[in-house]
Amino acid sequence: MPRGDDKIRMPSSTAGITQYYDEVKTKITLRPEWVIALAILVIVIEVFLQIYGNSLFVL
Q: pTM of the entire structure?
């Protein structure tokens, strides 16, 4: 019977499924507020272009 500090280790791969527990560190990090602000800005630009774009870009 295992003691409290002994851990049972499972195989690293089961049925072709590999699990990665390491956290991925990227050089670019975006705060959630910036992502929301960017999405709102894109929506505002899209609405502006839908309303006024035809008159601005008439050839």
A: 0.52
